[in-house]
Design a protein that fits this description.
This protein has 573 residues and is an alpha/beta fold. The chain has helices at 3-18, 26-32, 49-55, 59-69, 91-104, 138-153, 170-181, 184-190, 192-208, 211-224, 228-252, 270-278, 312-327, 341-353, 387-405, 412-428, 441-444, 452-472, 487-508, 513-532, 541-564, and strands spanning 44-47, 75-81, 84-89, 119-123, 157-161, 282-285, 288-291, 301-304, 331-335, 362-365, 370-372, 375-376, 437-439. The longest helix has 25 residues, at 228-252. Bound molecules: arginine.
């Protein structure tokens, strides 16, 4: 059980004794408990100002009365400062309760069942067919993957959806170019890049020969009509793209439950359009059919073009209904860059106007842009960094570092992959998602800074301590938790005890970076502990057992933290 809850319970008991009849619940108290900015103000502080309204007494007076009454094994002492009740925990008791709680359920500290019986759909990565996977796609992929793990960890059923961008006139042009200048072998060999090249050539040639545009459109029409040849090529383009992308997903360890993309909704939009019309939400505007949204400060959303063609938002409307009917979701998250803020605001508003109450469970998890070594990426200027190249380079660099730092490490290739990929993923999920990210090698792969490798290294250090203890056979005694009363151990313990709260917050705010940073702090605190204390001491088996238990708990929670952000934790580095 977490310490905050336990203290809240103790305060609730004291409160019930002192101010019978008009108290607040234990959960309310737990919510009120703050973590003071400075250590000298205690481990927890209860601001009594809100209580003062219900209890009709001065905050200071409430704090003093409670202070009088509060005495239990968990609390060392309390102090009253202003209207605050500052609680100092008994370090021995704190240590025992936290370490035992963490170790009771390895790998599950911070897990919960708040999502039991509930479903969350997560739309992430959502790549476009025949485009190469570049580092601009890293955030959607990893944020989504991490959020999926966080929701899983909290008992939800999760559905990961790769809403493929597999519809649009460009595919007609691509087939046209392929028929004229391409060959099967070339595309099989070159993968997505070969398709991109064909597309670029199409545009170059179309400048000289505008009739090509008509041919491209004709091919798209054939896709729309389900013409067998067009469909065969188009389906194959999709397969080639997915095969190429799968290599990156494999490196990242990312998976999906569904690849239903835009074209999947071809036959599912009519009912939505009909419903919109029935509800009087469609307006004719220059031949197109739109939903007017100026009452909500938004431009109109075009649902049908004047030629009857559907749009991105039409497909998203159909997808929303489909997901709702298929998965009965409680929440549906869209992890998509902030450039699409308006799109999702329009989408949610239209669903609201249609009377679909479930729109309330939908959320656009937006995020900032990625630049590379200080420069904005631009396809037009040819400044692109492909994700696969970036990951491979990271693995290579990690391999070099390992080669110098630990030349005798077994399975160096495997560890290099875990560290290289981990560095990139950690870097991506380290800052608030709404901030733009500038990817820098020296900041991602540094073993000393706030980086993936640093945290992984700390995990490996804990593993190594425990291995050595097992070899020496010193880990048998009953732990004496009084041995964990020093400041460095308390820092580790506090971070362990607050981890579940951080996981919950990360879920509620769709912000995995909270876990990244918490896990980093834990690693830093453990390292400080490690450097200032001797863990194994033959003359003190009970103290040794306590220090090893702390090490085990730290290792476990660091591993969980890394897991939740999609980073692996090698046992040796
Ligand atoms: N493929 C789109 C893009 O790259 C992202 C799709 C996001 N998901 C959605 N349901 N609209 O911009």
């Amino acid at each position: 059980m977490d310490m905050k809850k336990r203290i809240a319970e103790r305060i609730a008991q004291a409160e019930a004794c002192c101010f019978a009849g008009c108290g607040v619940t234990c959960d309310e108290l737990a919510a009120m408990l703050e973590i003071p900015p400075e250590k000298k103000l205690g481990d927890f502080a209860l601001p009594c100002f809100r209580l003062s309204k219900t209890l009709r007494k001065a905050p200071q007076m409430i704090a003093s009365v409670l202070a009088e009454k509060l005495s239990c094994e968990e609390i060392d002492h309390v102090e009253v400062v202003g209207g605050y009740l500052n609680v100092f925990l008994s370090r021995e008791c704190l240590a025992r309760s936290i370490v035992e709680a963490v170790l009771a359920n390895p790998g599950r500290w911070g897990a919960s069942d708040v999502g039991a019986g509930k479903t969350v759909c997560l739309d992430y990565s959502s790549i476009n067919i025949a485009k190469r996977f570049h580092i601009g796609h890293l955030s959607t992929t990893m944020l989504g993957h991490s959020l999926k793990r966080i929701y899983d960890f909290n008992g939800y059923r999760t559905v990961g959806i790769n809403h493929l961008g597999d519809w649009g006139t460009q595919f007609g042009k691509m087939i046209c170019a392929y028929k004229k200048w391409g060959s099967r072998e070339e595309v099989e060999r070159g993968g997505v890049q070969a398709m991109v090249d064909l597309y670029v050539r199409f545009h170059q040639e179309a400048e000289q020969n505008p009739a090509l545009e008509d041919e491209g459109r004709a091919w798209f029409k054939r896709i729309e009509d389900g013409d067998p040849e067009a469909m065969e090529i188009f389906t194959w383009f999709k397969e080639v793209t997915l095969k190429d992308t799968q290599r990156v997903y494999d490196l990242l360890g990312v998976t999906f439950d569904s690849y239903a993309g835009e074209s999947f909704y071809n036959d599912k939009m009519q009912p939505v359009v009909d419903a919109l019309r029935e509800k009087g939400l469609l307006t004719k505007s220059q031949g197109a059919e739109v939903v007017m949204l100026d009452d909500y400060g938004m431009p109109p959303a075009i649902v049908l073009r004047s030629d009857g063609a559907t749009l991105y938002i039409t497909r998203d409307l159909a997808a929303a209904f489909y997901r709702h009917e298929t998965y009965h979701f409680d929440k549906c998250l869209y992890v998509v860059a902030y450039q699409q803020n308006l799109h999702f605001k329009q989408l949610f508003k239209i669903l609201e106007l249609m009377g679909c109450d479930w729109y309330k469970g939908m959320e656009h998890v937006s995020f900032g842009m990625v630049s590379y070594e200080g420069r904005a990426l631009s396809t037009r200027e040819g400044y692109v960094v492909y994700l696969e190249d970036l990951l491979n380079k990271a693995i290579e660099k990690a391999r070099e570092i390992i080669e110098t730092k630990s030349p005798n490490l077994p399975n160096k290739d495997e560890v290099a992959r875990q560290v290289g990929v981990g560095a990139v993923v950690y870097f991506d999920l380290h800052n608030d998602r709404t901030k733009d990210i500038d990817f820098r090698w020296e900041r991602a792969l540094n073993f000393d800074g706030e980086t993936g490798p640093y945290v992984q290294y700390t995990h490996a250090r804990c593993c190594s301590v425990l291995r050595k203890a097992a070899q020496a056979g010193v880990d048998g005694a009953a732990p004496d938790y009084a041995a964990l009363s020093d400041d460095e151990a308390s820092d580790v313990l506090m971070l362990l005890s607050r981890f579940p709260e951080t996981v919950r917050k990360a879920m509620d705010q769709s912000e995995p970076s909270l876990i990244t940073r918490h896990t980093t702090q834990l690693a830093q605190a453990y390292n400080k502990y490690y450097f200032e204390h001797r863990i194994m001491d033959e003359s003190d088996p009970a103290g040794t057992a306590a220090r090893l238990a702390l090490t085990r708990a730290a290792r476990d929670v660091i591993k969980t933290g890394l897991y939740l952000i999609g980073v692996e934790a090698p046992e040796r580095m």
